[in-house]
């Protein structure tokens, strides 16, 4: 449990966010070694760390107290760590470990500001926290900045020597050392060129490494196996501030994409997914606090691990640079490569055989494990090329199927037979070609690509089938149009008692003819009876639809047809000769006959009688319009004062009773002049 002072300190070191520059920071571990769990969780949520996956980096800085570590971080990463006030004298500014997110650096980069070493506040003998924080930094960081004074380089009693010794000693406590980049930042650089300072510094580093390594089981292990060493130099911030800032701006660029191959931490290992970083950091700190010494792997296993990984990495790099592989990879991206599987299997086998030869004397379990890892990396590397190859096989097979299928159909082969034969043949062709592309070292299943090809073939067959059926249906619908439209129009024009009977016989005959031909054409397609019946029904409904459409069209022209019929019958005699009005003609009788014939046309067009249902439309119209007096004797109700016929459903009604009455009134008004002229001619 934390004491009240610690709780207050945690509250003070809450998650901070600078609204001006977007920097987030938290006091991760306080000066007493307490891990700020709530602060870390809040920090992780604030920076959306869990969304980063593996695309994030961790940077830390260590160095002597009051050496300008926080100042460097703030200028380098736009963070907001508390800096020392030079006017108040040198004293401890950073206590414990602070963490912040770098502003404007991609990918997401977290930076830790560690409490300075050799501070007078902790005293000379209290180095426990220094070692714990150093070990924690090495365990979680990809890049560790080591701040040091320029004047300490080459000095035997330099302030950086204990720090280097601490770093190398705590590295030995790591159960599984990371490949960490140590960036030595030389502060307050003098006139001595960096090219002269760097060899001296590297010599100091190697000397400390050998001193620490001498009595260790890692004796004769190279520094480069655990660390990448970088050296940079910066001018004095206080004396050459502008020059310092320019140099820091240049250094900042090196942290962009630091985890990419070739970056500062491009070869890092054992990365914890970002979503588990908070918990991982807590557990690492807990282990460091509770265990004075962490056991290293056994010497044999450790050496085997390092060496076998080296060999595996060498062989992997050698494979990547292999000319045959590079040419094969480049070619397969553009086109199908004959013998792809055999060629690639041979290159892979040579690579793995070389690994086996060089690693044969190392621990078997480690050797096998590293071989499996190498094989897995190689498979991940070559799998895209294999997928390209399968893609070429699939697309090529599909195109050849389409060509063969079209050719078979054009030659007159039945649709179903052509589809089945072509599908069977080209699926077997895919199986043969995909087997040729198989890699001996991989156990990959091409069933997904095969299923995709099958779906593509099925989709093409379905599309062609749909197009052919649609084309076939359109052909027979066009035939029906020609066979029905003209005769139906002629029958409506000469409408009489037998008009609808003649139309029914006409469409029955033409439907039977079309259905017989269409059924024969469908025999080449594989379809169930239900689907076939639906298509035949559609053809029949099309024929009925033609008649219904023509009937509605003619119903819209009925007044014109009635006037034409009246004019013809009134103006011509029974021999179709023009009448000469001599005074002997019975104009009343002629008029009645012509009107009666026109009324017949109206009654025929008033309803759709394709279903041969009896109705009284003709008699109703005749009584109501030709002999209205007899209609009104028995009742005062107008039989045409309605919007529907008693025996006819609305869907079959073409002209309503009230419309018929209106049309008749208009018809009489527009033909009255012709009658009047005839009467005048007799006078």
Automatic annotation (TrEMBL):
Signal peptide: none annotated. It comes from the Eukaryota. This is ROOT HAIR DEFECTIVE 3-like isoform X1. PANTHER family: PROTEIN SEY1. Keywords: Coiled coil, Endoplasmic reticulum, GTP-binding, Hydrolase, Membrane, Nucleotide-binding, Transmembrane, Transmembrane helix. InterPro entries: G_GB1_RHD3_dom, P-loop_NTPase, RHD3/Sey1, Sey1/RHD3-like_3HB. One of its GO terms (molecular function) is GTPase activity. GO terms for biological process: endoplasmic reticulum membrane fusion. Belongs to the TRAFAC class dynamin-like GTPase superfamily. GB1/RHD3 GTPase family. The lineage of its organism: Eukaryota, Viridiplantae, Streptophyta, Embryophyta, Tracheophyta. GO terms for cellular component: endoplasmic reticulum. CDD domains: GBP (cd01851). Residues 53-268 form the GB1/RHD3-type G domain. The keyword DNA damage does not apply.
